[in-house]
C-alpha cells in the first residue's frame, strides 16, 4: 500500500464537482492535506474501483448526497511540497467529474467537517487553491447554455 504522505508514487484521486441551481458544493477538509480549507468533495480511488464509482462513493461519504457522475472536467497533478523539494509531501493525480444530485440529504461526513453550497461570486474570499477555483469555473462554463 502506498502511503499518502511522502508516497513513493503519485496516488490517483477523484473529485465531484456538484453543481445545482447556479451553486457548487464544497467540503471543508477535516484531515490533511488541506485541513480546514474548502475543497471539491473527493478522495482516493480504491483498488478494483472504477473512477466514476470512486467519485460517487466519495461524494456520498463526504456530503451525504447521491450523485450521477458525468463528464470529466479536468485531469491534473496536485503536488504539495515537503520540507525538501526532492520529496513531495503529497502527490495526487486528480480527475474531477461534473456531477448532479440524484438523492440523499446534505450533511458533512467522512473527511469533511462541513459541506455547503456556494455561488460563483462567493468563491474568491474562500481562499481556494488556484487549481480548484479554475476547475470549478470550467464546470460552471460546461453547464451554461451556449449563447
Q: Structural class, from helix and strand content?
A: alpha+beta
Average the pLDDT over all residues and give the rounded result.
Answer: 91
Structure annotation, total helices: 2
Strand content: 35-45%
Please report the distance between the alpha carbons of the first and last residues.
48 Å
Q: Helices and strands, in N-to-C order? A: EEEEHEEEH
CATH homologous superfamily label: Nucleoside Triphosphate Pyrophosphohydrolase
CATH hierarchy class name: Alpha Beta
The CATH topology name reads Nucleoside Triphosphate Pyrophosphohydrolase
* Tally of strands: 7
What Rg is obtained from the alpha carbons, in whole angstroms? 15 Å
Uncertain stretches:
none
**Helicity, in percent?**
10-25%
Label the CATH architecture: Alpha-Beta Complex
Please outline the major beta sheet.
7 strands, mixed
Number of domains: 1
Question: Given the C-alpha coordinates, what overall shape results?
Answer: globular
Description:
It contains 2 helices and 7 strands; from the N terminus they run E-E-E-E-H-E-E-E-H. The chain is an alpha+beta fold and 147 residues long. It has one domain: Nucleoside Triphosphate Pyrophosphohydrolase. Strands 1, 2, 3, 4, 5, 6 and 7 form a 7-stranded mixed beta sheet that branches. A hairpin with a 2-residue loop joins strand 1 and strand 2. The protein is globular, with a radius of gyration of 15 Å. The mean pLDDT is 91.
Amino acid at each position: 500500500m502506498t502511503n499518502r504522505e511522502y508516497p513513493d508514487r503519485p496516488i490517483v484521486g477523484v473529485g465531484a464537482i456538484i453543481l445545482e441551481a447556479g451553486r457548487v458544493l464544497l467540503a471543508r477538509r477535516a484531515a490533511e492535506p488541506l485541513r480546514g480549507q474548502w475543497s471539491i468533495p473527493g478522495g482516493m480511488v480504491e483498488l478494483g474501483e472504477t473512477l466514476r464509482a470512486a467519485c460517487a462513493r466519495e461524494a456520498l461519504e463526504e456530503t451525504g448526497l447521491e450523485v450521477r457522475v458525468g463528464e470529466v472536467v479536468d485531469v491534473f497533478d496536485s503536488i504539495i511540497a515537503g520540507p525538501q523539494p526532492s520529496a513531495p509531501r503529497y502527490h495526487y493525480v486528480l480527475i474531477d467529474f461534473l456531477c448532479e444530485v440524484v438523492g440523499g440529504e446534505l450533511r458533512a461526513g467522512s473527511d469533511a467537517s462541513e459541506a455547503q453550497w456556494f455561488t460563483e461570486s462567493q468563491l474568491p474570499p474562500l481562499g481556494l487553491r488556484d487549481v480548484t477555483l479554475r476547475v470549478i469555473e470550467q464546470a460552471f462554463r460546461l453547464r451554461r447554455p451556449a449563447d
